[in-house]
Design goal:
- By secondary structure, this protein is an alpha/beta fold.
- About 40% of the residues lie in helices and about 15% in strands.
- The strands form 2 sheets. An 8-stranded parallel β-barrel has the order 1-2-3-4-5-6-7-10.
- Helix 6 (about 160-175) runs parallel beside helix 10 and helix 8 (about 205-210) crosses helix 9 (about 215-220).
- The structure holds 1,4-dihydronicotinamide adenine dinucleotide and 5,10-methenyl-6,7,8-trihydrofolic acid.
- 5,10-methenyl-6,7,8-trihydrofolic acid binds near residues 36, 201 and 255.
- Its cofactor is FAD.
- This is Methylenetetrahydrofolate reductase.
- One of its GO terms (cellular component) is cytosol.
- Belongs to the methylenetetrahydrofolate reductase family.
Length: about 290
């Protein structure tokens, strides 16, 4: 019998009208989804889309960006709507809004209120295997120390290095953080978009690293400089940390580039569903 570990997968999607009609065609419920909260969208859009996706039967994890939440009253209202839709897990992050919309300026503050108002939610927080372009290591460590005890899991920022992720898990463990880690990897996306978004989101260091390693090799082997295929990176990460008890699975940043997802999901080293439905979906479901 193979001792090869299997992984779970979760897709990160951006809320949009097309998503709700197109996603079910290629990724079947009850797969897991993580729904972004971008500054120019605002949290109400994330909440509304998450509720619709949950109603379609997905395990849905809305992002709540602290700096985009206007007030405690707004937070209570969002939590009530999400709970009523059967949603039980959130991802809390500071968010990229330059000026906070209300009194929440970082995710620890938001986490405290979520736990005070609706302790039944489990909460994921962000992790940075390669640091953050603006926040220093001391800031990140302080923030993690403050949040870890209230959190149930971590999602890592997009990263192209299996070594960096493996080292990060070791650092977490040595600092006593034992949260299950969803490892954030890019999905199949055009190189142009990846570079543009990466620079804006602050994953420049990772991208620079990737040019010399996994990214460049993957592109070269495929003879395809237009699209990035993260299967190789995923395999490398899986080989390195697939057996680690802290490894929760892959969090795939899809950027809603759905048409290339089937090929990627089909080749992931993921947990297969126990019983295949009559018209099998891609096996990348939990
Ligand atoms: N990893 C991801 O998926 C996402 C990451 N982000 C980025 O991550 C940053 C940090 O988010 P968390 O890990 O939740 O950090 P956090 O909320 O735990 O904050 C860590 C420290 O950085 C400070 N800080 C956070 N955002 C700041 C900002 N925009 N300007 C000035 N100081 C700030 C906080 O006051 C705190 O001292 C966001 O601001 C954003 O750049 C945003 C959305 C998603
Ligand atoms: N700093 C930071 N902020 C984030 O929001 C973020 C991260 N990092 N790291 C990982 C993921 C990736 N995220 C993103 C960011 C942008 C798009 C995106 O598609 N942006 C489009 C606009 C989409 C729209 O308006 O509907 C763009 O062209 O900017 C998707 C996911 C969210 N997450």
């Amino acid at each position: 019998m193979s001792t090869e570990p299997v992984a779970s997968v979760r897709l990160e999607v951006v809320p949009s009208a097309e998503l709700l009609s197109q996603l079910p065609l290629i990724y079947k419920a009850p797969g897991s989804l993580s729904v972004t909260c971008l500054p120019h969208h605002g949290p109400a859009r994330t909440v509304a889309a998450s509720i619709e996706l949950a109603q379609l039967g997905y395990h849905t994890v809305p992002h709540l960006a602290a700096r985009s939440i206007a007030s405690q009253a707004e937070l209570r209202s969002f939590l009530g709507q999400l709970r009523d839709a059967g949603i039980s897990e959130l991802f809390l992050v500071a968010g990229d809004r330059r000026t906070p919309a209300g009194s929440y300026s970082w995710s620890g503050q938001l986490l405290e209120d979520v736990k005070a108002f609706s302790p039944e939610f489990s909460v994921g927080i962000a992790g940075y295997p390669e640091g953050h372009p603006v926040l220093g290591t001391a800031d990140l460590t302080r923030s993690l120390d403050a949040k870890a005890a209230m959190a149930s899991s971590m999602v890592t920022q997009m990263c192209f290095s299996a070594d960096a992720i493996s080292d990060y898990l070791a650092t977490l463990r040595s600092s006593g953080v034992e949260l299950p880690v969803w490892v954030g990897v890019p999905g199949p996306v055009s190189i142009k978009k990846l570079l543009a978004l990466g620079a804006r989101l602050g994953v420049g260091r990772s991208l620079k690293l990737a040019r010399g390693t996994g990214l460049a090799r993957a592109l070269w082997r495929r003879g395809d400089f237009l699209h990035y295929d993260s299967n190789r990176l995923i395999r490398e990460i899986h080989e390195r940390i697939g057996h680690d008890p802290l490894f929760a699975g892959f969090h795939v940043y899809t950027f809603n580039n759905l048409h290339r997802l089937p090929g990627m999901l089909g080749s992931l080293p993921v947990r297969k569903p126990r019983a295949l439905p009559a018209n099998p979906a891609y096996p990348a479901t939990i």
